[in-house]
Amino acid sequence: MKQLIYIFLAIIISSCSWLIKESPDQEILLNEEIGKINWSQVDQFPSLIDCDSINDTELEKKCLYEKLSHTIKNKLENKTFVINSLESDTIWVALTINTDSTVTITPDLSALNDATAKQQLDSLITQHLDSLPKISPAVKRGVLVKSQLNIPIALNKK
Fold this sequence. Notes:
This protein is α+β, with helices and mostly antiparallel strands. The chain is built from 4 helices and 7 strands; from the N terminus they run ααβαββαββββ.
């Protein structure tokens, strides 16, 4: 009977070591998790109130671009200025949507060779696009993130 108790105690003592697992290093876990994240995509694209009800991601993205393009076109439609030299009839505007829903406008005016025209167009775009509708920021893993949209603006040559 005494031997049975010793065997039973030996089994209990050795089984405890089977239950104890080494916890993984937090730094290693963090690096693995960071490696899994696709930093070039967001979980939820920036959105306008008009596009919030759309459940399909691609349709919501298309709605956002269409609404923004339409709004920009309407705001700049009757504005005229003289450009002497233009390489392309399209100017790209980068809209940076910050986490607090503010929008920073950065037009790419590299297609213009005239410095005066660049300044006029930059001030025109910035002035008239400051009143864009509220855009909700993008979401990545439950956290609001800064994102950038590139919107084309077609210029009419006359």
